[in-house]
Amino acid sequence: MKELYQSKIQVSNIIKILSAGMLGLKKNRKLVPTRWSVTATDDTLSKFLLSKIRYYQETGEILLFTSEYVGNHYEFLLLPDKFSFEVIEAKMSGSVWNPFSPGTVVMQDHEGFSGRKTYAENVTGAYYSNRLALCEYLEKIKRQASCLVMRECRPEYYAPLGVGILREASRDAFSKHPEKFPSVEEALNQAQKRMRLPVSLFKSRSWLLKNFGKQTRLSRWF
């Protein structure tokens, strides 16, 4: 899988090859359900990239990226810190995953520098698709950072289209020039201008924001 990826084979094609049971030793090959193969590919490739990213210098700025596709609105907040990752999804009333409830359903998962040991069972496959897009960007700029992903699943998203569209929406965000801010608050205020829900909904729940800046850095003493 890693060799195919390094040879510039599209992730969507790697997923198909894995699903068809065409990877690995011939005697061990098995057909894999598409949903499993998508997450397995996103997870494996992002871990491969992270094995290098964790050794890179941290970004020196607070960056904000955004994208939107068929009712899925994303804000990616990158903070100058060692790698950590969090996805918070707000599934608005009337959207495909929250068609009847009058309120908003919020799901989240996260990982620290050492990674996850269990499946992201709240956000599920979208977590790994978002992480792969982030890792591709960090590998491109040769830096590491903490990233908070804020997703609004809006009523316009009325039919499930698979996590592949979320990977591409995330890649689209990182293909754009980032907005830069001197503080987290200013970055969140800018994100609020594009979001329908209060950004405080995400801020109050975020594990990453609660921990950002609390650990004393070695640079303080030198």
Order of helices and strands: HHHEEEEHEHEHHH
Q: How many domain modules?
A: 2
Class by helix and strand content? alpha+beta
The 3D shape can be described as globular
- Percent of residues in beta strands? 15-25%
Helical coverage, percent range: 25-40%
Rg from alpha-carbon coordinates: 18 Å
The major sheet is characterized as:
6 strands, mixed
What value does the average pLDDT take?
A: 92
Strand order of the largest sheet: 4-3-5-2-1-6
The tally of strands reads: 6
Give unreliable regions as ranges: 218-222
- DSSP helical segment count: 8
* Cα-to-Cα separation, first versus last residue: 43 Å
Any descriptors?
single chain; 222 residues; alpha+beta; 6-stranded mixed sheet; 8 helices; globular; disordered C terminus
Task: Give an overview in words.
The protein folds into 2 domains: about 1-55, no CATH class; about 60-210, no CATH class. Helix 2 (about 10-20) crosses helix 3 and helix 3 (about 35-55) packs parallel to helix 4. Helices cover about 35% and strands about 20% of the residues. It has 8 helices and 6 strands. It has helices spanning about 1-5, 10-20, 35-55, 125-140, 165-175, 185-190, 200-205, 205-210; strands at about 60-70, 70-80, 85-90, 105-110, 145-155, 180. Mean pLDDT is about 90; it is low at about 220. It has a 6-stranded mixed sheet. The protein is of the alpha+beta class and about 220 residues long.
